[in-house]
Every structure is written in structure tokens, then in C-alpha cells.
Design a protein that fits this description.
The protein is an alpha+beta fold and 85 residues long. The protein is 25% helix and 36% strand. The protein has helices at residues 3-9, 44-57; strands spanning 14-24, 29-41, 63-67, 75-76.
Length: 85
């Protein structure tokens, strides 16, 4: 599904989605070409708990929690600067 399809299927709700096809443009914006909605939620804390649970099991999946009131996902990549332990 593209983002507009997700918005129509789940109006005015929080959704946990997985990006199945995505790329980053020149302005560091993540462009979601295809997504798979995993769950819908009435509030963001529930959605974030579900995100954390799935991310803990498989950190390589590209997951996002978004509200469908957004016309565009507007996901900006931030480069990590620093030392990780």
C-alpha cells in the first residue's frame, strides 16, 4: 500500500507500518514507496509499545508509527554523530 491508501483505510488513527520499499532523497527525506500496515491504534503510547516489541525481536525491520492525519509521512533521516558503546 502507498501512504494515501493507508490514510484512506485507517482514517484519523495511529498506525504501525513497515516500509517494504523505500529510499532516501537528496534532502535526507525517507520516501515510502510501499508500506505494509501492521496494526492500528487509538493512541500513540499503545502504538509505540507495539513498535518497541517488534523492533526488539527484529531490529532490521524498517518500522514507523504515524498518524493518518498527515498528508505525507515527512520522515527525515538524521545522521548519527558520536561514539556508540
Amino acid at each position: 500500500m502507498n501512504w494515501e491508501d493507508v490514510r484512506q483505510a485507517f482514517p484519523k488513527q495511529w498506525v504501525l507500518i513497515e516500509a517494504t520499499q523505500a529510499h532516501t532523497n537528496g534532502q535526507s527525506e525517507r520516501i515510502l514507496e510501499e508500506t505494509a500496515p501492521l496494526k492500528k491504534f487509538s493512541n500513540s503510547p499503545e502504538a509505540m509499545r507495539a513498535y518497541q516489541e517488534i523492533h526488539r525481536e527484529d531490529p532490521n525491520r524498517e518500522l514507523y508509527v504515524l498518524h493518518t492525519s498527515r498528508k505525507k509521512p515527512n520522515i527525515i533521516e538524521k545522521k548519527w554523530v558520536g561514539v556508540r558503546r
